[in-house]
Amino acid sequence: MSASSDAIARRFGDGGPYAEDAEDNELIRRVLSRKTLRRYSDKMPGDELLDLLVACALSASAKSDFQQVSILRVRDPQKRASIGELFPSMPWIGIAPVFFVFLGDARRLQRVGEMRGKPVQNGTLEGFFNASIDAALAMQTMILCAESVGLGVCPISVIRNEIGKVAGLLNLPDLVFPVAGLCLGYPLAEGYVSLRLPRGITTHSDGYDDAALGPAIDDYDRRRNALHAIPKEQQRSNAEFGEAAFYGWSEDKARQAAKAEGAAFPPYLRSHGFSFD
Ligand SMILES: Cc1cc2nc3c(=O)[nH]c(=O)nc-3n(C[C@H](O)[C@H](O)[C@H](O)COP(=O)(O)O)c2cc1C
């Protein structure tokens, strides 16, 4: 088996395909083994390196060349602390050496329209969606480049749950919204590669077919549990749903998704320039 095939097996454990004879390279091997890391040493990544990573992020593909991402680095320790305090269950937000916020920026194109005297209406669903995707692609590009130089990162979308306070702290104008923050630093711990759903249900050929979802999820739950069981004390919402004898990925994600998150985000967007027409 090649290094990539090994990495595919670790990532999916789904019986293949393993792309044994495909030509691979270091980037591919690295992507296959990438992982989110939430604990960092005190060592601060240098500004030159951060400039490099920002340039990489802004080199990501951009819908229609509209270039609707902005990247905001939160340097002010007071602002960092204020954002961190909003999310006490995620202490890495306040203490990671570096914290970026990837912004969907539908405002810039609107302003360009005004500058050129054209009737641009960018608060549409299309404008929101395009800006969101540009920001997500830029963030993932930074993630992969940061990981390639030995940094650890963690995206932070929970900031949208307190959108009003976060937007106030960061002076976000209408039509500019956070897609996610990104904690970044030199890792303190190894972490582990998170097992992905079997490709039998996440890939399709010529047409969508999820007939095999049930048994595939059961099998995934069991395999994932054998590798990294979720401890009893981390079961969610036991008061509501009871303690589960077997608590796998699907039970955890169903409980998580049953508690709607981000209720403040749609009204915030609607009152800050987005009509979603
Ligand atoms: C858009 C996005 C938002 C995320 N938001 C958070 C977050 O708010 N807090 C957090 O601790 N992790 C967050 N994560 C990290 C995910 O939990 C992590 O990517 C997932 O568990 C898979 O693990 P892996 O990246 O190591 O494969 C986020 C990831 C993405 C892509």
Description:
The chain has a 4-stranded antiparallel beta sheet. The chain is built from 13 helices and 4 strands. The protein has helices spanning 3-12, 26-32, 47-57, 77-85, 92-95, 107-115, 125-148, 163-169, 199-202, 213-227, 238-241, 249-258, 265-270; strands at 69-73, 98-105, 152-156, 176-185. The radius of gyration is 21 Å and the shape is globular. 43% of the residues lie in helices and 10% in strands. The chain has 277 residues and is an alpha+beta fold. The structure holds flavin mononucleotide.
Q: Features of this protein?
A:
single chain, 277 residues, alpha+beta, 4-stranded antiparallel sheet, 13 helices, 4 strands, 43% helix, globular, binds flavin mononucleotide
Largest sheet: 4 strands, antiparallel
Amino- and carboxy-terminal Cα gap: 51 Å
Query: Stretches where pLDDT falls below 50 for ≥5 residues?
Result: none
> What is the share of helical residues?
40-55%
In short:
The protein is α+β, with helices and mostly antiparallel strands and 277 residues long. The protein has 13 helices and 4 strands. It has a 4-stranded antiparallel β-sheet with strand order 1-2-4-3.
Secondary-structure blueprint:
Blueprint lengths: L2 H10 L13 H7 L14 H11 L11 E5 L3 H9 L6 H4 L2 E8 L1 H9 L9 H24 L3 E5 L6 H7 L6 E10 L13 H4 L10 H15 L10 H4 L7 H10 L6 H6 L7
Antiparallel strand pairs: 1-2, 2-4, 3-4
Helix pairs in contact: 3-7
The structure holds flavin mononucleotide.
The site of flavin mononucleotide has 11 residues, from strand 3.
